[in-house]
Structures are given as structure tokens and as C-alpha cells.
Amino acid sequence: MWETEEFGDGHEGRPGVLLADGTEPGPVYFDTGSGPTVHRSTDWYVYDGTLGAPVATELRGACSCGWRGTPRYPLDWEAVERRNPYLYDTSGPEGDWDAHINDVQARTVPLPVDLTALLDQVETRLTALIADEPLAAIRAAATLERMTQRVAEDAVYSLDTVDGPEWDTVAQALGVSRRAARSRLTRYALCR
Questions:
Q1: At 162, is the pLDDT very low, low, confident or very high (cuts 50, 70, 90)?
Q2: β-sheet bridge partners, residue 73
Q3: Is the torsion defined by CA of 153, 157, 159, 164 positive or negative?
Q4: C or N: which end of the chain has fewer Cβ atoms within 10 Å?
């Protein structure tokens, strides 16, 4: 899986698979015997035709947000090491996912340059403080948590309009889904 620190699981990437007919298969289920749970997987390498799984013929970039890459990369099962499938070259799909993330980032609301520099300085200073004074670093982190919570609450209430915020705009500005944007703003608002 590929992810960025900023977007986390909201934009988690992976090599997606396509069958010979161009469709994207659902998860593969593995019955491990007794018990109430059945293991399921969407890892690209389980679509190799064994244990009743369909056979994938192509890879493409995929993201948890629903994005799917357009370029398709032939999947050569002869070159896949069964015991170490992660050694197979998936750089094409990953590069496409990277381009998707760059596009998402380009559409987010930009942070002021001076604020970005200040945040970088704070992180550098706190990281250095960990080695010398870990308790001071923890105290500083707690101070930052309180401050960011207060700022986030005030920002949410500043967004309030008669009909509520435009969720598509908020989602794009934050680089997350509508659902994640709504959840984040609600979480900030409820802390007041």
C-alpha cells in the first residue's frame, strides 16, 4: 500500500487489477475452516487463478478514494515470485497514483508560505527536544493540541453559512472525501 502522511487512508494507493474482459474483480474470499470470519483480500497477487480466484491480466493504479488509473500494465505471472510477490515491479501503477496525489494536493487550499515555514521550524525544534527533554516535548505537544483544537473549532464556526458549508468545496480544499470532510468538521465542532 502507498500512502502519504497528509492524506492517510483517505488516499491509500495500491496496485489494482483488471481481468481479461476489462472488469475490476471484487475481493477474493478465503475460507480458513472453522470460525465465524472469512478472510478477504484485494491484494493484486491473490488474483492468480488459484483457490478459485479469478486471473488478473493487467495492473493499474488504484486509490481508496475511488480513483482508478487509466494506463494499464500487463501482468506477467511468469515473472511473479509466488513467495515474494512484492518483488514484482509495480512502479507504473505507483507512478500513476503519485500523479493522482499530486493532483489532489494541487486542488487543496494552499497554506501561506510563512505559516508552512513556521510549522517546519516547530517540527524541527520539537524533534530536537525529544532527545534532550522528552517531557518538555510532550508538554509542547499538548499545548499544540489545545491550540489546534481551538483554532479548528473557530474555523469551523467561521465556515457556517445559512445552509451549511458546500461539502464538495470543503472536501476538495482539504483533499479528502465529502464524508471525511463532514466527519472532520463535525468532530471539531462538537468539541466546543
A1: low
A2: 59
A3: positive
A4: N
Could you give the CA distance from residue 168 to residue 178 in angstroms, rounded to a whole number?
A: 6
Kind and range of the H or E run holding 182: helix 178-190
Span 105-120, average pLDDT: 96
Only one residue has cell 465556515, namely 159
Mapped onto helix, strand or coil, the DSSP state of residue 59 is strand
Give me the long-range contacts of 98-107 (CB less than 8 A, separation at least 24).
98/2, 100/11, 100/13, 100/61, 100/63, 100/67, 100/69, 101/4, 101/7, 101/11, 101/13, 104/7, 104/11, 104/65, 104/175, 105/6, 105/175, 107/172, 107/173, 107/175
- The string over 71-86, giving b where at least 16 C-beta atoms fall within 10 Å of a residue's C-beta and e elsewhere, is ebbebeeeebeeeeee
Return the closest-CA partner of residue 155 out of 163, 78, 30, 147: 147
